[in-house]
Design goal:
Largest sheet: 8 strands, antiparallel
Shape: elongated
Helix content: under 10%
Distance between the termini: 28 Å
Structural class: mainly beta
Low-confidence stretches: none
Order of helices and strands: EEEEEHEEE
Number of strands: 8
Length: 188
């Protein structure tokens, strides 16, 4: 989610160095990995994490590979904080296709689009200023800018199932975005 959603992530550790690593495996060649280091040294704090997930999927062409990472560097001075964050996300995924209710009942593993794919990349940088003005009042200002690239490949076919391919269409969308979000919080 972009910074305008009030989605609060876990802050850096208050210790000089801390880390965690989680590895998960499962059916359909599922592998999920999350690794993180963070810490605080005086007025400075930092965080870096990397996540990787992949699976062959339950249906043919239901595979995916996802890589995501975050980096954070922050500085505190009195009741104020300044930080810069970088978020990166990359996805390569098959698109197994939608099914009607009748198709699902006949074969819930059916793949209606055996060659369709999706590729997505997103990079965002966020600059944040925070000021705790009193016990009841605080101000947060965020400025962010980013880039997203979204590509899909879909085969065209004559409507027969299973599909008998007759061509493919490649579609690409690119987005550049910038935003500014200021919030004043008063606790009653």
């Amino acid at each position: 989610p972009q910074p305008v959603i009030n989605f609060i992530s876990q802050p850096p550790s208050t210790r000089p160095l801390a880390g965690t690593s989680e590895q998960v495996g499962g059916s359909h060649s599922l592998f999920s990995s999350f690794n993180r280091i963070s810490g605080t040294d005086g007025s400075w704090n930092y965080l870096a994490d990397y996540a990787h997930r992949q699976s062959d999927g339950q249906r043919q062409n239901g595979d995916y590979v996802l890589n995501a990472g975050d980096a954070h560097l922050g500085y505190s001075f009195g009741a104020q904080r300044l930080s810069v964050d970088f978020h990166a996300y990359s996805l390569d995924s098959g698109l197994a296709g939608l099914m009607t209710g009748a198709q699902f009942l006949a074969n819930h593993n059916q793949t209606t689009t055996p060659d369709d794919r999706l590729w997505a990349d997103r990079y965002t940088t966020v600059l944040t200023y925070e000021n705790k003005l009193s016990e009841k009042d605080s101000f947060i200002q965020k400025l962010w800018s980013g880039y997203q690239d979204l590509w899909t490949r879909s085969d065209t076919y004559n409507g027969d199932l299973p599909p008998q391919g007759s061509g493919a269409m490649l579609s690409g969308q690119r987005f550049n975005y910038t935003g500014l979000d200021g919030r004043w919080l008063h606790r009653w």
